[in-house]
Amino acid sequence: MTEKNFLTKVINETALSRRSFLKWSAALGGTAALAGGMNFGLKTVEAAAETAATQDNWVTVACWHNCGGRCLIKANVIDGVVTRVKTDDTHPDSPDFPVQRACVRGRSQRMQIFGADRLKYPMKRKNWTPGGGKKELRGKDEWVRISWDEALDIVSSELKNVKEKYGNEAILSPGTGSWLLNAYGGCWETWGMVSIGAWPQPVAHMTGRNAVYTFFGEGGASDRMELRNSKLIVLWGANPAWSSAGNPAYNYQQAKKAGAKIICVDPILSATNVALADEWIPVRPSTDTALLLGMAYYMITNNLQDQEFLDKFTVGFDSGHMPEGADPKENFKDYVLGISDGIAKTPEWASQICGTNPEVIRSFAQEIATTKPMAMLSSFAPARTYIGEQFCQAFLTVGWMTGNVGIPGGMVAENGHATAGNQGNPLVSAGATGITAPPNPISAGTMAAFFGMTPDMGTLGIVWDEAWSAVVNGEFTEAFNKKHKVDIHLIWCIGEAAALNQHPNVNEGIEAFRKVDFVVTSSHFLTTNAKYSDVVLPATTQWEREGALLTGNREMMIYGQKAIEPLFEAKDDVTSNVSTTTGWIEMEIGKRLGLDVDTLVPLSLKQQVFNQLAGSAVIKPDGSGYEPLLTITADDISAMGVDGKPQTGRITYQEFKEKGIYQVPRTPGDNLGFLAYKAFRADPVANPLSTPSGKLQIHSANLVKSIKMYGWTEVTPIPTYRPPLQGYEATFENFDTRVKGKFPLQIWTPHYMRRSHSVYDNVTWLREAFPQELWINPIDAEARGIKNGDTVLVTSPHGKVIRHAKVTPGIVVGAVALGEGAWADRDDSTGIDMAGATNSLSGTTPTGQGVQPWNTNIGQVEKYTGDPLEADYKWPQRIPIKEA
Amino acid sequence: MANQKAFYFDASSCIGCKACQNACKDKYDLPLGIRWRRVFEYGGGNWLFMDGVETPNNVFKYYVSTACQHCANPVCRDVCPAAAITKRADGIVLIDPDKCIGCRYCQWACPYGAPQFNEETKVMTKCTFCADLQDQGLNPACVDACVMRCLEVGDYEELRQKYGSLAAIEPLPTANITKPSLVITPHKHAQPSGQGTGSILSLSEEV
Predict the structure, then answer these.
(1) Which of A294, A723, A859, B187 is the most exposed place for a label (fewest CB within 10 A)?
(2) Buried b or exposed e, range A196-230, using 16+ CB within 10 angstroms
(3) Residue B37's closest chain A neighbor by CA?
(4) In a domain, A360, yes or no
(5) CATH number, domain with residue B92
(6) pTM for this predicted structure
(7) pLDDT digits (tens, 9 = 90+) for A813-835
(8) B residues 65-94 near A, CB within 8 Å?
């Protein structure tokens, strides 16, 4: 029996006591009988109460995923095994000072760390030979267990061979890059806007802000306490209940209790909408710009715009207030009224594109124009679209027309992820690790391009959308009218186990993975990226590593600590603190390459964590500056075995370690709030913005220039609507006569509660809770004979998936939605991805400033004629070697 | 009953995130397919072609998190031929796995689907109200997991005084069958049990 063999290995290789083993095995699906039974009822209740006190050993552990939340998880560690988790109970819970409660994903994390599908030892593909070996079998070959020495020897010699034969430009490290490769002469990295969509450049050129602060600090929106001053909150394309789990939805609820009306604009009736909103404005994916223009038309023709604000604080709205050097005819008002292009952007015009009822467009416009203060907050999703910059331009402009900038409770901005509904300077933060990345001589990589900096395309790297086509076709876009030739022979995924799944166009990705000479991946599981590799290396999770300081919302910092020893033969691929930092695996490879790895990472992990602890800072109660967070004694330092000096701070290191969190207490009206654009609103002359005019720029010539430099699509200096590639209009064979085409439905890809991107997709408890289902409106379902729960085939111009249909009135007619991040599971014989990865449906369609337009896609849905799909949680786990 | 522990559920704020469901599974290592606490998505309404576009017409959705209601009238107990189900002095209804013969009568009798059969141990299982935690003065795992603070535990009468007497909304059964120890704040679109115009939108594999 496979399961028995696996469990035998668990016992042998991790040297667990029998008692621990029983506890753990109870956690593994299908093995409950071995665990001595699920014995619940009167007797166990009494027994449990008796033993609970003596068996509690709670350790704060990291919940480190890129979900947008950052919450507290404590693990009960008994004999080296985690028996249960709980969340924040470190202080009494209140709306002003809420505990950091973890979401369902964090609550299920024990099933991830101790999953029966954890990779146990290094493996190579059975038919692998030096330089390749039946490369077409990648993804379906058998796996062979190998020793760490053999694995590291293989990886080093393949890397060395490729470098010597083809040079460093033949190496692709998709995603985060690698310190080791940097030190070894560099590699191609991939970059792109990924989460934030088209926001950075419009934000940079229209507001003078750097969009990095949208994620990490003082963005264009204010903090959560300001939301309680809002009379109206518009959440545009935002579903924080799913995409920023933890407290953001709860914070919005406090604004609602304080009297705010909440309106959600979304193609779906989202969970956030259900719990918080008074009204749902349905809109087709990728058409929000048209909706906004229809609203602008209503506002202008009814003279509802805040003209005084526009005249004083913005340029580009009308011909009388243009930025220097701009053509007065190129103003927003004339475009909306149709004076400049002959098309009046009436609610009826908008409605035919965005699908929102024209009466609703009018009443919505009336409401935002006449309710002050109003918070108009967009997520990133409507900008993760083809030529998505047009949405950002239109959103900011229409928001500014209401004058809700820099006033209490008034805000107009993009926000999301960790700063959803709560932007502002971090109130507590970690110190630096003391180590820095060596430069990559070939490409600067993700972060350099991410937040609206001027692109230097020659060194940026390969945009995500073109990562696989660069491998397959040998070139990528370097700039306007400029292609860069490449000849990739090696794909390096140490510390990056999701690139194949999470870059656009999995099908082209599989072709790329099967083309190169060598692919290596480190991972916790046989992810799709690992599955298509030659060598797979088992990595530790953060529960098995030295520790990490984790920040998220501005008010708290978590100290995730090592809870258990590395499972099986897992080793550190990266360190806990910096996701790209070389860990044990790359250090060992570096030694084999003759690199001085001690110079590469000169400090131990312990020392890095200590440096972060010692440098931690917390805001002073009066908000005037920061002071050290921690008091650290000489005894603490010697117990940690690190170099350092004793210091005095707000709380003791011991308290921080025990609680695992420091959270800054908040009360309304304290000195720790954040009001975006406060100084600018108070005096725009004394406090100009970093734009050419010093004002908010509805018209921006620099935006046009900057987007053109990237080399894909272009934008106009003012917000305009142009039909996107694979947008709503593309669902028609003939848009004018409204004859539908081969792909009559829009497809878009919300963040889904089951996962943080692709992480957690394999966790059985989450599969059980959240099926990877296709949302479809009853009108679209009935037209295709589809009933709730039917297995359906979804076809896009780029690929096919099958899934269960969820027939729900909570989605607009004509668009279907599939949550992003499922682990692609393609059947080569049919080309169908059985798991429903959204990137099996997405294509290579880069746009704007390197945006992945995931929410702009089209397709067809039909009843699947093959065997119906089994429920996801009943699928066998990906256990690569069953009889080991 | 003078002394009856009860759940309170705020349907007006639930985001259907299932943190409660999996906090429960984590506490009790529940096997796949067994959910002592589960969350239903209920909704309805339709779309009408108006003003040139498909427009939602009374489209609504809400979530209901539900577990064993530790009923005043526990029909599960009444039908159990093995006398394996008892009600404690504080009203918590428990199954004794050593007495349970796995006949499933309780599963058929309970209108909430609370008792669930464990295929491996061949006995019935259900929500224990985390009696072990409550005996230590702690909250049930689900209550402390709720990110929207929608769940509470307390004395039934006190909860009714605080939140009202509603004990049933769609898709839960009407309260007169078993007298559930449950107090609900309804969602603004909540529909009365037995008179709903919507349907359970969750896929059957989910609940």
Answers:
(1) A723
(2) bbbbbbbbbbbbbbbbbbbbbbbbbbbbbbbbbbb
(3) A769
(4) yes
(5) 3.30.70.20
(6) 0.95
(7) 999 999 999 999 999 999 999 99
(8) 84, 86, 94
